Predict the 3D structure of the following.
Amino acid sequence: MEKVCLITTGATAPFPELVQAVLKPESLQLLADNGFTKLIFQCGQTFKSFENLMPTDHKGLDIEVFDFKADGLNREMRMCQAHEGIANNGLVICHAGAGTILDGMRLGLSLIVVPNDSLLDNHQLELAEELELQGYATKSTTSDLPNAIQIACQRGQRAWAGHNASFAQEIDKVVGYEDDVRARLD
Amino acid sequence: MTTISALRLMVAAIFIVITTAFLRLLYILPISSTLRHGRTIKHLKTKLSHMVVVLGSGGHTAEMMSLLRDIDPRRYAHRTYIVSSGDSFSAGKAAEIERIIQSKHVQSFSAPTKAGEAHSMTGTWDLVIVPRARKIHQPLYTTPFSSLWCLIGCLQALHATSKASRTTPYEYPDVVITNGPATAVMVILAATILKLFAVAPAQKMKIIYVESWARVKTLSLSGKVLLWTGICDKFLVQWESLAKKINGTGTRRKVEWKGFLVE
C-alpha cells in the first residue's frame, strides 16, 4: 500500500528550513515507521540546493522534487488521499499559507502547518494556532517537526463539512430577495 | 462694513455646507437606513440584479472564487468584475469564476460565455479595469496622487457600468462585493461619494465586505479602514474568535459571523 506525504513551501517566499527539517534522519525514520512510501517536495527556490540537503540514507522512501507547478498542487494533494486498495491516508506538511491549507482541508487530508518564522506576518501564525485549537491541523515549528509527525499520524483529521455557510444567501439578504429572508421585526 | 458682512456670509455659507454634508452622510450610511426602514427594501423574486465584484491579488481572488460558487446567475443576471490595471491573473480568474457560476445552470455546459455576451440562462458578465492605487516599489510621496487617479478611475467605472447595465438599464449596480484588495477600498469610497452627492440613490450599491479566511484574530488593513468608516452594509468575518473580539460584549454587532464562507 502506498502512503504519500506532500511537503510544500508555497510559491512566494523561500522556506529552506522546512525542507531541511523533513530531510533530517529523525523525521525520515518516523515517516518510514508510520508506513509512508513516498515524499513529494514542492520547494520553490530551495530546489536548486536540494541535492546538497539530501541525506544518503532515504530510509527506503521514494523522493520526488520540483520547484513550482504552474497549475497548482491539486494532483499531488489527491495522491495523499486514501484510495481503496492502492493508498492509505497520507499527510501534508505545509507553510501557513491559507490557500494550501484550504486545499488540504477540502480534501480531508491530515495537515501539519509550519509558519515561516522569517516572515514578519503574524496573521499566519494566528491562523495556525486557531487551526490547531479547533483540531483541523497540527501546528509545528521546524525544530519540533518529528514530534508533530508522530501526533498527526495518530490523531487523523477533523472533517470540516457542515461548518460552511453560503455567501450567496448573505448577498440575497442585503439585496432584499424575500424568499431567503424571513420578515423579522426588530 | 462690506468686508465684514462678506466674511460673515462666507462663514454662514460654510456652516450650511458642512451641516448639509453631515446630514447627507448620516442619511446614506447603513446604520441610519436600518433605523429608518427597520430592514432593507424587499425585492420581488423575479427582479434581476446587477452585482459588482472587486478582484485583486492572488490570495483574495482565489478566495473570491470559492465565495461566489453558488451565486444564481438567473437572479444576478449582470456581473461586473473590477480589476486593477496590470493584474492579468485576476482578469483571467474572472472567466474562471464565471465557469463555476455558469456551469451549474446550463445543461451540457462546455465553456462560459465571453465577457459582454448575453445568454438566456446565465445573463451576462463583463470586466472593468481601473488604475492601480499603488504600484509595487512606487515611492511613498506619489501615492496620494496615484490613489486619487485610482479613485477617479473607480468613479468613472461605476458610472460607465450603470449605463451598461443589462438588468437595470441606466441604474447603478445593486450590490458591491469585495474581500479586501487595496482597489476595493477605492471602489467602495467611489460608491459612497456617488451616493453622498445623490448621483446614485442611497439604496443602490449596497456594500458587502468579507474578511479573508486567513484572518483569525486581527482584521486586514482594508478591513480595519472599512469597519472604522462604517460604510459597509454587511461586514462578514469567517472566524468566531475574530467576531467576538471585535463585537465585544455590546449589543450592537459590528461584524457578523456565519461560519466559513469559503469551501
